[in-house]
Each structure stands twice: as C-alpha cells, then as structure tokens.
Amino acid sequence: MDPVRLxxxxxxxxxxxxxxxxxxxxxxxxxxxxxAGRGAGSTALVADAFDTLADGLKGAVVLGxxxxxxxxxxxxxxxxxxxxxxLAALVVGVLVAGAGVQIGWQALEALRxxxxxxxxxxxxxxxxxxxxxxxxxxxxxxxxxxQHRSPALxxxxxxxxxxxxxxxGVFAGVLGARLGWPGLDPLVGLVIALLVLxxxxxxTRGAVDELMDRVADPELIHRLTQAARSxxxxxxxxxxxxxxxxxxLVVDLVIGVPAHLTVQExxxxxxxxxxxxxxxxxxxxxxxxHVNPVETHPSCLETVP
Length: 305
What we know:
By secondary structure, the chain is mainly α. About 65% of the residues lie in helices and about 10% in strands. The chain has helices at about 15-40, 45-70, 85-110, 120-145, 150-180, 185-210, 220-230, 265-280, and strands at about 235-245, 250-260, 285-295. Strands 1-2-3 form a 3-stranded mixed β-sheet. Helix 3 (about 85-110) packs antiparallel against helix 6 (about 185-210). It is elongated.
C-alpha cells in the first residue's frame, strides 16, 4: 500500500466504483424482490425487498460520502474531508437499524393474521437470487473497503453479508410455508428484522467511535511508536494520538530530544520522525510532531548531523 497523500485528491476509482455498484445492485434487486414478494404473497420476501431498497438509498448516501472524502484539504478543512466517510457510515447504521424496526413491525402484523396463505413458488426463486447477489456484493465491498481503508464501504459490505443470510432465511421460511407451516414465513421476517437491527447498531457504534477519534488498536500505537523511536535523536515518545479520518490517519505526537540540540537540529529530528512514520505506516497521511527537550547523561546524547 502506497503512502497516502493529502495534497491531492485520493484515487477514487475502486472505492467509488464499488459504491456505485452497491447502489445499482440494491436498487434493481430490491425492485425484483418487491415484485416477486407481492405477487407471491410472501411477507418475509416483501420485508427483505424493502430492506434492499433501503440499502439502495444508503448506497446513494455512501457514494456521496466517498466522493466528498476524496477531496484534498482546503482552507476550511486542513485535515481533508475523510470524516465524510464516517458520517456516511453513521447514516447507513441509523437507516439499517430503522429498517430492522420497520421489518419487525410488518412481520408481527402478519403473524396476527388468523390463517396466512402460503406464498407462491416465485418467492423461492427470488430469495435464492438474493442470496447469490448479496453474497457476491458483500465479498466485493468488504475486499475493496479493507484494501482502501474505507469505513463506509466496509459498513455496506457487512450490511450486504447480513442481507445474504437474511435472504437464506427467507428461502427457508417460504419453503416451510409452502410445505404446510404458513406461519413460518412471517416468523422468518421477524428473525430478519432482529438481524438487520443488530447490524445497524454495530455499524452505528463503529461510526460514532471514528467520529469521536477513538483508536482502540494497540498494535497500531506500537507500530507508530517503534517507527518514531527508530530515528536517531528521538529519545522518547511522550504522547501519541492517531485519529481516523475516513480511509487514512492523522497522527499528533510529542517526542523528546536531547536538550543540548539547537532548534534547527530538533526540527530536523522531527522531520525524520515524520518520514519514518509515513514509511512504516502507509495509512498515515499527516503527522504533526511537537519537540520537547529531554535532560539526559552527556554520554547518552546524540548529535544530529
């Protein structure tokens, strides 16, 4: 992975293309499932269809966030626009959770019906189609999202993976209803609602953590610290604060240098620390280094050439 550059727009090709693919796929698949679900009289498939159409709406939000996040820094946004991805992921999570509540309500209403009719056979084919399409879409979104450190795309990928499992449940519910258990179809719809709600809560929590600059990866802190300490003249890493900015990181740190160094020599150490961190951690796009003098034994001092 090449180091991130903030002085130019981030390359949009694979990430934005994946976001556009998710939007188009969910829109078309949702319409197909809605037509099949209503025609076959399947509560579970109709619920799944509305969830997929909601995914299409979320895909539009994600796509907008991805496009904004790729803009370079400007006067009003000196750290770039990467937080737009986290905001998009937050919107996705809230919409997913809302879809789960709506699906659950529809399923409960169907369960109250005295003798629900078994759904038609076309619902089976639509459910199988959804399993295949959603599973493939999830694989693409998760792979591209992880390769390019896109939280919004990863959120959409986890949502698509949950949808594939839900569609498999729809297939089982429709099949069971056609075999003589008509209440199984709306019951599966209720289970789908719980799965969708759980996914929405997880995505929302992750997006909030990113917006609140929470970094809970000790391995990342270790890599950043080791990169800084590898520079001659850096005697200590007193503070280090990495902040996620969508697909990249911004790092603020305080280092200790020998107290006898001149301001120019201390600045030279700071620049070397910045370069070392960017080489060792390519996901870091910007490093702000503050230098503090450290009193130490003269034999341990190291002059910067």
